[in-house]
Design goal:
By secondary structure, the chain is mainly alpha-helical. The protein has ten helices and no strands. It is found in: Cytoplasm.
């Protein structure tokens, strides 16, 4: 075995040793078995949609907004939403009916307030109107009466004019028109043994 080039030359030996010590270690070979593939946008979007639809219906706009917030490409989002509509997982008509069924008796909301909520959810006005037309007027009035009776219990210390103003205002915020509001308030005040207030100019 021939001697190394630097033998007998201290400076050359130091240089050779320094180069070996300072050289970075070679990286280990890449293991293809542990390489993580990039997530497929369509698979990601499909999981987002299924997660969002678990437990409750959502409008197409709500789902589209969620996909956009997760940076799903528009073309992928549109294609998947179309497919979900085809199989009935996304259905704005069914969503509108479900929303009304939960909000009308539960919150006592009238058609006008429900229409505003559905519009904010991105439901088409015509689709919303068809669903709202299925509300029984008697059920809407019953919901208004229930609201007034509940609120009236907290108004025992105020005069009838003030009670009427507050009750009608509450019904207005729930989407009821002045006609049905005053009629319901007048009836419920009378049923509670309180005097009928003067006309709707209050």
């Amino acid at each position: 075995m021939p001697p190394p080039d630097w033998l007998g030359d201290v400076s050359a030996g130091v240089d050779a040793w320094t180069r070996r010590a300072s050289a970075p270690p070679a990286p280990p070979p890449e293991d293809a078995a542990v390489r993580v593939p990039e997530a497929d946008p369509e698979s990601v979007a499909r999981k987002i949609l299924l997660d969002q639809l678990t437990g409750q219906a959502r409008s197409r706009k709500e789902l589209g907004d969620k996909l956009a917030a997760k940076n799903v490409p528009d073309d992928v989002a549109a294609r998947l939403l179309d497919r979900f509509e085809e199989v009935g997982l996304v259905d704005d008509e069914a969503f509108a009916r479900s929303w009304i069924a939960s909000r009308q008796p539960g919150k006592g909301l009238a058609k006008r307030a429900l229409a505003q909520e559905l519009r904010r959810k991105g439901v088409d006005d015509e689709v919303a109107r068809e669903a709202l037309d299925e509300i029984d007027p008697a059920a809407e009035e019953a919901a208004a009466r229930a609201l007034v009776r509940k609120k009236l219990r907290s108004l025992s210390r105020v005069d009838d004019a003030t009670a009427t103003r507050r009750l009608v205002g509450m019904l207005a915020r729930k989407g009821y028109g002045s006609g049905i509001s005053f009629a319901v308030v007048r009836d419920e005040l009378a049923a509670a043994g309180r005097d009928e207030p003067e006309g709707p100019g209050l």
